Amino acid sequence: MNKHFLAHLEQIESSIKNFLPLEANSEWKKFSFGNENIDSKHIFPLIETTRSLVDLGGKRWRPLLLVLCARACAKDKEKSQEAAYLLAPLVEFVHTASLIHDDIEDSSPVRRGKPAAYITYGIDTAINAGSWLYFEAPLCIEKLNCSIELKNRLYSNYLMELRRLHLGQAMDIAWHRDNTKVPSVQEYLKMVKGKTGTLASLAAKTGTLASNADEETVKKAGIIASEIGAGFQIIDDVINLTTGNPGKKRGDDIVEGKKSLPVLTFFEQNKKNPQKTQELSQCFIQASKEGIESPAVEKAITLMEQNSSIEIAKKKGIELIFNGGNSFIKLFGKDNEDAILIKELFISMIPKELMGAENKDA
């Protein structure tokens, strides 16, 4: 990994652990709850449930993007960088909270190779702890040494992205609950830019705001990051149907009824072949009833492989990521070292086995 990334990640990790300590001391209690005398036994379930997932790792690319965006448009890189480190928990905590709730909504048994939080701690505790972390996340804004105007911009941006995140999730839930609903590719892209892209957008916009960038720069950075976030969701869709995502079984999106891009591409390409679309739909219905061991899972994957819809989706995901990296360089300047690092970061995150020869040297 690039030495610049490692140096930033060390500071990011320290900030995350500082804002979510293993033990709630009196200073932290007062900062988070306004009362240092709260019994720690009532706080412990909130910290344990959320911190356990944070400690399992994750790529931390969102807070890293936040830091790189802050540096890329800063007049004083060191000052903006310090502000970005303080704000890193904002985006990582939202991501963590969303994963806790996602697993409940999708009935996913595993997260990062371990039982999902709701299985370990109970649904009631997991819902409550995940919700609490959404509200805890923006407290890091209060630690910034900046104007009240900038703090208000940061809060406003945070709340907007959070609303968009839940709207995207609402769309996804509606589609995978209804086996008869087949959204268009364009509808899917709108959904995923909300469900997944908002977290990337939150990171980029928070980073540029940390440098007190103008509204146009903040807006453009958010749009670019949202496209890249969508690209990585598509890549995750593809991995789910090929090698399988880490800690999960290949094809569990089919069992959950997820209308991923490979699936929608298959339907779009077979509009005039209702027999084929009906065959894939039946696979989804059967897999939903029988679970991950159902032969319908592998049959569905084979149908999409034969139709090249998985390959088409993969190319779309990679295209969004590459184009986004180039757009950041255009936004911040072709000689901007941090903009170049942003592109390098995203390209390095694409699994090597998915990269075609035409992209490896790009």
TrEMBL record:
The record's annotation in Gene3D superfamilies points to: Farnesyl Diphosphate Synthase
Q: Which UniProt keywords apply?
A: Magnesium, Metal-binding, Transferase
Provide the GO biological process annotations: isoprenoid biosynthetic process
Q: List, alphabetically, the InterPro entries matched.
A: Isoprenoid_synthase_dom_sf (IPR008949), Polyprenyl_synt (IPR000092), Polyprenyl_synt_CS (IPR033749)
Family, similarity comment: Belongs to the FPP/GGPP synthase family.
Q: Which GO terms describe its molecular function?
A: metal ion binding; prenyltransferase activity
Name of the protein in question = Polyprenyl synthetase
Q: Which Pfam families match?
A: polyprenyl_synt
